[in-house]
Specification:
- The complex is a heterodimer of chains A (about 325) and B (about 500).
- By secondary structure, chain A is an alpha+beta fold.
- Chain A has 10 helices and 6 strands.
- In chain A, strands 3-4-2-5 form a 4-stranded antiparallel sheet. Chain A has a two-stranded parallel ribbon with strand order 1-6.
- In chain A, a hairpin with a 5-residue loop joins β3 (about 105) and β4 (about 110-115).
- Chain B has 3 domains: about 5-25 and about 320-495, Up-down Bundle (Multidrug efflux transporter AcrB transmembrane fold), CATH 1.20.1640; about 65-135, 2-Layer Sandwich (Alpha-Beta Plaits); about 140-305, Gyrase A, domain 2, CATH 3.30.1360.
- In chain B, β1 (about 50) and β2 (about 50-55) form a beta hairpin.
- In chain B, α11 (about 320-375) crosses α12 (about 380-410), α12 packs antiparallel against α13 and α12 (about 380-410) packs parallel to α14 (about 455-480).
- Classes of the chains: A alpha+beta (about 325), B alpha+beta (about 500).
- The interface between A and B is large, with 83 and 75 residues.
Chain lengths: ~325, ~500
């Protein structure tokens, strides 16, 4: 019944009994409705929902890959506004007429982002003059230039961060599940289910971004260093939610011998769901605030974190523990 | 739990609170102490408290400016790469100083001393690259008699090119001379330059007209060799114009030169030492009444004639100041909105404990902002996002405690016992959740690409501070408030019923 680790097992059992007594004694206590949900029984629906989101994402990643942000793709990017406020078609025509392989994206505030292959300092100035000649007075808000070397390094360090984080998380899982009742095979089942839930989040996030970036051609779906940051933050957040559920399962297995494995899992999910949902909810509120009010630059990061954290909470409640039940059925320990 | 509720801890929290308020409001404290109005511009900001400048250090994406990563190529053979990098940084510094940038940041980087990162606030990319990449040509001149030349370092004489230029110089450095008392500047020439310098000095020592028995110390203009940067034949042709000469003989002014038009005359003079003996071997020493600073300035001046390496811009980021200001406004709005929503949610859902948690959250936000000012942490857009995100995560621990609290009350504990048990039992979960976020931050901070480091740092600071605020501050506030029995009502505590013992 508890996330306690500092209490001894005896104390935990005692608490359990006291808990039970109190509930019998006070019939008037309103049990929150959520407690009656049978999540394990409906697990296939939840798996289906996850697949409905993940499969299109994987197809999109396979086919269309990603819309790469400038720090991964390299190139020169001008963020500009024009005094004459030309429409998108006009700007696109002007950029196409330059024959410099430029591409145009419209921003929310009526400005434009114009991206070229990497330009030198002199070329940059020429390009700006040229744009002004074609489209009238121009206000340059931002210039980003990323050469191939730096783009390569950013990709390298991003991948390195992902690899090290994966190792750290595997180590964390191994440490947390080293003494599950049932020996190393049980530990493997716990760790494996947690890992699957984690991969679920990564696939949901990358898949949604691939679709956003390539199918809807939205700048929000850009994959850049911030996206990698979001993925890692989400993974840290989600793996912990899963660990909390699994810790409860482990403890409930110890103290309630009468219940079946499935009942224990369902009970544990119910006991931890409120905290998982509410802690994620406060973060979601804040991210929604950043997404709405934080301006274009932060929207991609906020959206990635938003999707990832919602997915992480969903997967730790509706995927990780049900998956454990399925695994235990396929491969009983006794 | 006795420790958390003890008076030293409470004293500590109050001390942190007072300190944070002081640091966060440093500008207002300063205005108040000096009887300045609380609005508008006043002199002396940001305030300086005993050498401490307390203000938010804004990254370029918030302040506006240019960031360039340079790659260094063509390192001169046989010199320490670290030295070459330092010298290049010194030259870039010198050139950038001309732009009057506040706090230019020029840092060495790269695994093999082959990177330099330049951050310049308020400068556009074109200007920055032009200034840093400017090629100034160093020239040596001798003096030839010209009766009409009245100004300059040697009145009655005008300079003439000797053919010795910056290309012949390998490096210059400031050093203490052999007596160990005074500063000198050592100049080393390339082998071709050394030979030419030898010939020049030989010719110089032998010539003081009308003084055939030239003594070692005799001083005449012919024995001097002047060093200039960017001196042109046109300048020499104008040597008979006193006002022109007065300007051109000013110390070297790279800022003026970078912005030079056809009509402006800029200072180009570096030094005009006398040659005492023939100098063979390609190593010259310029001595004089140097201080450490002036010797280093001269060495940098001589070096700035040419960078010791080639610079290649790897990436350039230019953010306009208006966009930066806009970003500050937007992220401030996002932060306040986020804070308000979380506070509202906590109060509605958890009632009085939620209110106390919100107070702890404000304490947390104030303390973290103070840390940002004091450390100081350079705030970027990503960094602010990390901070705002940490606000959402900071209530995590409170949620864990309060959910636990409800459970304990439901299990039939008294309020006080339930609070204690809730804090104690929620602790492992709080510790773990913060650990996993902290691990992610550390990984990102060390191996992540540089743009996300700001995010990792602020989130990590936030996670650590939130531990203190949610455990210590909330628990203490709860304990204090719950001593009043009128607060122990179920409706206030957001629980179904309480055991009254």
């Amino acid at each position: 019944m508890s996330e306690v680790s500092d209490a001894t097992p005896q104390q935990q059992v005692a608490d359990m009994i006291e808990d039970g007594k109190a509930q019998q004694a006070t019939v008037a206590v309103r049990e929150p409705r959520v407690r009656r949900l049978n999540i394990i029984g409906r697990r296939n629906w939840f798996f289906l929902l996850s697949l409905v989101i993940i499969i299109p994402g994987i197809v999109s990643m396979w086919h269309n890959h990603f819309l790469l942000g400038i720090d991964f793709a390299g190139g020169t990017e001008f963020t500009v506004t024009f005094a004459d406020k030309p429409d998108l078609a006009t700007v696109e025509r002007a950029v196409a007429a330059e024959n410099a392989n430029g591409s145009v994206i419209q921003t929310a505030n009526g400005g434009y982002i114009i991206r070229y292959p990497p330009l030198g300092a002199a070329q940059q100035t020429n390009m700006q003059t040229d744009l002004q000649n074609r489209l009238g007075a121009m206000n340059v808000q931002q210039i980003l230039e990323v050469g191939g070397t730096i783009a390569g390094e950013t990709i390298f360090y991003s991948i390195l961060a992902v690899v090290i984080a994966s190792i750290a998380i595997l180590a964390l899982l191994a440490i947390r599940f080293r003494n599950v009742p049932g020996g190393w095979r049980a530990g493997f089942q716990f760790g494996g289910s947690a890992l699957a839930a984690l991969l679920h989040d990564v696939f949901v996030l990358t898949g949604v971004f691939s679709i956003l970036g390539t199918v809807f051609n939205s700048r929000l779906g850009q994959i850049d260093a911030f996206f990698v940051t979001a993925v890692l933050t989400v993974v840290g957040f989600s793996v912990h939610d899963t660990i909390v559920v699994f810790d409860r399962i482990r403890e409930n297995l110890r103290v309630s011998q009468r219940l079946s494995f499935e009942q224990v899992v369902n009970l544990s999910i119910m006991q931890t769901a409120a905290r998982s949902i509410i802690t994620s909810f406060t973060v979601v509120l804040v991210l929604a605030a950043i997404f709405i009010a934080g301006g274009a630059t932060l929207q991609g990061l906020a959206l990635a974190l938003l999707i990832g954290i919602i997915s992480g909470t969903y997967s730790s409640i509706f995927n990780a523990a049900p998956l454990l039940v399925v695994w235990r059925r396929l491969q009983p320990l006794r | 739990m006795q420790l958390v509720l003890s008076w030293p801890i409470r004293l500590f929290v109050v001390a942190v609170l007072v300190f944070s308020l002081f640091v966060d409001g440093a500008g207002y404290v300063y205005r108040f102490a000096n009887h300045y109005p609380l609005q508008g511009n006043v002199p002396g900001l940001p305030p300086n408290f005993g050498g401490w400048q307390l203000y938010f250090h804004k990254g370029l994406d918030l302040a506006g400016g240019t960031h360039i990563d340079y790659s260094l190529t063509n390192f001169p053979a046989g010199q320490s790469r670290a030295d070459v990098q330092q010298r290049t940084i010194a030259v870039i510094n010198k050139r950038v100083n001309a732009l009057n940038v506040s706090e230019p940041e020029i840092r060495g980087a790269g695994s093999n001393y082959d990177r330099i990162t330049v951050d310049l606030a308020g400068v556009n990319a074109a200007q920055a690259q032009k200034t840093i990449g400017a090629v100034s040509k160093l020239v040596y001149t001798k003096w030839v008699a010209d009766a009409k030349a009245t100004g300059g370092p040697q009145p009655g004489y005008k300079p003439a090119f000797t053919g010795l230029t910056g290309d012949d110089i390998q490096s210059a450095s400031a050093a203490i001379d052999s007596t160990g008392t005074s500063w000198v500047v050592n100049v080393s020439f390339t082998s071709g330059g050394g030979t030419r310098f030898d010939q020049l000095t030989t010719a110089n020592v032998n010539a003081c007209p009308g003084d055939p028995g030239t003594s070692q110390t005799a001083n005449c203009p012919q024995r001097h060799l002047a060093i200039w940067l960017d001196l042109t034949q046109k300048d020499i042709d104008n040597w008979e114009d006193p006002s022109y000469v007065a300007k051109v003989s000013q110390p070297y002014d790279p800022g003026c030169l970078a912005a030079q038009t056809a009509d402006t005359v800029c200072g180009k003079f570096l030094t005009d030492p006398i040659t005492l003996t023939e100098i063979a071997g390609g190593n010259a020493t310029i001595s004089g009444a140097f201080t450490q600073q002036s010797a280093q300035d001269l060495a940098t001046g001589i070096n700035s004639g040419s960078l010791p390496v080639d610079l290649v811009a790897l990436d350039v980021t230019q953010v306009s100041a208006t966009l930066g200001a806009e970003s500050v406004k937007l992220s401030l709005a996002a932060g306040l909105l986020g804070l308000a929503i979380v506070v509202l949610f906590m109060i509605i859902y958890y009632r009085m404990p939620g209110l106390l948690a919100s107070l702890a959250l404000l304490f947390y936000a104030g303390a973290v902002l103070a840390v940002f000012k004091v450390v100081p942490v350079t705030l970027t857009l990503a960094g602010i996002t990390g901070f705002i995100l940490s606000v959402g995560m900071a209530v995590d621990a409170n949620v864990l405690i309060f959910e636990r609290f409800k459970e304990e009350v439901r299990a039939g504990r008294t309020i006080t016992a339930a609070v204690d048990a809730a804090v104690r039992r929620a602790w492992p979960a709080i510790r773990d959740s913060n650990t996993s976020t902290f691990i992610t931050c550390v990984i990102l901070g060390f191996v992540g690409p540089s743009v996300v480091k700001g995010f990792a740092i602020t989130l990590a600071i936030g996670v650590l501070a939130s531990l203190v605020s949610s455990i210590v501050v909330t628990h203490n506030l709860l304990a204090i408030v719950l001593t009043g029995s009128s607060f122990r009502r179920p409706a206030l505590l957001g629980v179904d019923r309480v055991r009254s013992v």
